[in-house]
């Protein structure tokens, strides 16, 4: 099991790097993002680079299923690799046309609903569309397909750096009376950048933190994963309080 995962991870990283190197010059000529009040960049920057990650994600997932067909037996093998495609398509259109937020959220909900609808799980969710709405993302659908609660928890905890950031940021914005669906610059990674950290350092921190959790899940099991996830949450709180631009100050900028 570890060999296919390691191979797909290495191949995905190399493929993303190659595709980005090929895409960025073209995007620089055709799809530039002009800085605005919430931008983290000060110069026009290419948009649409996420297309590389969508293509590689779909391709590597398909390769993983071909190599290890029993990895996710509860989910149709042809469904998971294609799950990112509608989201990637709406994201690319948003980069080009600045689509309303409702369109983007709608695409996420439709994709998650499709995965749940086609899955063989015997729950009456097909009769409860409001329940499906609250799932809100493809990731939630995939987690719910895990054969056991331990595997579901593992999938969630691997995403601790980003999920923890969002789970702390959204309530703080609600308590501050802000509109949570409005664009902002209040995530921890954004406030670290505002504090002077370069993009590369912030990205490396989040990538390394996620990689450590993934390796802990593969080699150490759930106890190690829970321990490291808790440590990362404490580290995030320390960075929030001691390093990043304070939430209140960033809210006024």
UniProtKB/TrEMBL annotation:
Source taxon at top rank: Bacteria
Name of this protein: Glycosyl transferase
Organism: Synechococcus lacustris str. Tous
Molecular function as annotated in GO: phosphotransferase activity, for other substituted phosphate groups
Main location: membrane
GO cellular component annotations of the record: plasma membrane
Bilayer topology: Multi-pass membrane protein
Keyword DNA damage applies: no
Residue spans crossing the bilayer: 6-24, 48-68, 127-144, 205-226
UniProt KW Transmembrane keyword: yes
Taxonomic lineage of the native organism: Bacteria, Bacillati, Cyanobacteriota, Cyanophyceae, Synechococcales
Sorted UniProt keywords: Cell membrane, Membrane, Transferase, Transmembrane, Transmembrane helix
